[in-house]
Amino acid sequence: MSFSGTVKEELAAQAGSARHCQLAELAALLLYNGGASDDGKHLALDTENDAVARKCFTLLKKTFNIDTVMRGRERLIPDDGMERKVIQALYLADSEDGRVKLTNPVNPLLIKNSCCARAYLRGAFLSVGSMSDPKKSYHLEFVCDEKEQAIQLRDVLKDFQIEARIIGRKKYQVVYLKEGAGIVDLLNVMGAHVSLMELENMRILKEMRNSINRRVNCETANISKTVTAAGRQIEDILLIRDRYGFENLPDNLRQMAEVRLEYPDAALKELGGYLEPIVGKSGVNHRLRRLSEIAEKIRS
Hints:
alpha+beta, 8% strand, single chain, two-stranded antiparallel sheet, four-stranded antiparallel β-sheet, 59% helix, Endonuclease I-creI
């Protein structure tokens, strides 16, 4: 199962203990997965996701004590009186003609409490949410049919200090997160704590690998620079030896030239330890620079 599917299985197994939270989650499920009959008077459940269907049925049982439900594009609640109670409680009817309308955002009254907003996000992710494999990249999104629904999702996420953006994709409006930290926060808000811990473990491993790779690349670059510089220094020293002669150099530069030829792979600090008396890194660098200047004069 994909990581996204694992998250949904975890969320599907949860249900808030308070009725107002259950109503908020049920409203999100029906808004994003529901349908209406041809006459617009009856609710239907239009989803192939078994986890979503089970969650919807569970919440209907808990909030309205409804046992009998239908699947597919058939009526969700056969009892007319009970169906009307559900539609009214979840504000799913048009205020003018009373027909089922599923293009509006969730009614703000249902998600005014923080706990209800969490339940709403849980229902929204179960319905229209997905995320990429965190081993490859960090990306979580909600695919909405309506612009107003996408804006509501983004605003609710913002209330939890989670920054999300909206982008159009064909006929849909996509609310998305690209940062691993934001996705971790959202999993925590929705209550997917097991998935959160798994994602955090993946993030730690990925950051460790990246840190090691950066360090190795940095050390490789430094070694390459050291080798290149040492090659130029030896080339200069050999030129001085053959065209000018070490005997014509001051004692400190002659000793420096001889030590560099003897230890061609040594770093500057190490070279200073071979000199008598011992010289620091900056002193070694200064002497090698003077040798380079002498070599340049010989070349010119």
